[in-house]
Design brief:
single chain, 308 residues, alpha+beta, endopeptidase fold (from Nostoc punctiforme), 2 domains, six-stranded antiparallel sheet, 13 helices, elongated, TIGR02594 family protein, CHP02594, Papain-like_cys_pep_sf
Length: 308
């Protein structure tokens, strides 16, 4: 996930180890407040902690609070958190989801504003929700935690902008399930699909993997029609939205899924996806941009606001 990589690079030079002078932990520099918000630190203990611990402003006391395993929730500890990149990544995702949800609730964010959402999440990660709201709604560029809000907004926006779903999927155009079997399989495995593209229908796995690469939660399913319950329905698709088609029959279970690229001169919908017709040819099983009759469209879906 590009945003995670950008934040961990800025926060701790890409390392999951150690803590800073204020007692913030690991790759994403998690403090007591964020760890309590995401369920790692006991809320009832955090609520009665000293104000400087809540604010993360007293380095030694803050670190001692986090090093006390009695303050962690069941199944969590200072040692396990520091020893596991996976746990730290999960912490970041939980915090990012909370921050983005708050951004939507407070009227700052709207569906489909990927760069703004990522920028808001980045600012809130460093400086908190209220500062992020002040920056995006009122232009108040606060300096806190060693950086201005504008810097982190730019980090978030740039991370998403450089790895949008169309750009990611386009890297694989022209790859075939036999000739490029291993490359496709490795890519889809990142999203949790252990499959052989030459044996298993993989359009949904490819779509899920592209979304995963961009930090967007997919459906986690091989059924293309699972995307009909994903994200938000739209009748005016934008570049990169999901398109779900019926295959076999409209009332059946089979389908096809890919990313919206527009419409051709004949009014057909253009889809960038996997397990499609080869570019300029008639054979399927490629990553390509292909056209489909609009009467086969079951729905267009815009990505959800949550990160993975």
């Amino acid at each position: 996930m590009a945003l995670m990589k950008a934040i961990i690079q800025r926060e701790n030079s890409g390392s999951y180890e150690g803590w800073n002078i204020f007692g913030y932990l690991g790759g994403y520099q998690g403090g007591a407040a964020a760890l309590a918000q995401t369920g790692y630190i006991k809320r009832e203990v955090f609520d009665v902690a000293a104000d400087c611990i809540k604010a993360g402003s007293c380095g030694k006391l803050h670190l001692e609070f986090l090093q006390n395993n009695n303050n962690w929730t069941t199944g969590n500890s200072f040692e396990s958190f520091m020893a596991s990149p996976e746990i730290q990544d999960t912490f970041f995702v939980k915090l990012a989801n909370f921050n983005s949800e708050e951004g939507f609730k407070r009227g700052v964010l709207r569906e489909g504003q990927y760069e703004k959402i990522a920028g808001f999440v980045a600012v809130a990660h460093l400086q908190g929700i209220n500062t992020a709201v002040d920056y995006f709604l009122h232009g108040k560029n606060t300096k806190k935690g060693g950086a201005y809000a504008s810097e982190y907004a730019g980090i978030g926006a740039a991370a998403v902008k450089t790895t949008d779903v169309i750009a990611t999927a386009s890297r694989f155009i022209g790859l075939h399930e036999e000739a490029n079997n291993r490359q496709l399989a490795v890519f889809m495995r990142k999203a949790g699909f252990s499959l052989n593209p030459d044996v298993t229908a993989w359009c949904a796995a490819f779509a899920n993997a592209v979304l995963h690469e961009n930090g967007i939660a997919g459906t986690g399913q091989l059924n293309a029609r699972s995307f009909l319950n994903w994200g938000t329905k739209t009748d005016t698709p934008k570049l990169g939205d999901i398109v779900v088609l019926w295959r076999g029959s409209r009332d059946g279970w089979m389908g096809h899924v890919g990313f919206f690229k527009g419409f051709d001169s004949n009014g057909n919908v253009l889809i960038l996806g996997g397990n499609q017709t080869e570019p300029g040819g008639r054979h399927s099983e490629w990553v390509s941009i292909d056209s489909f009759p609009v009467n086969r469209v079951l729905g267009y879906r815009t990505a959800p606001k949550k990160f993975i």
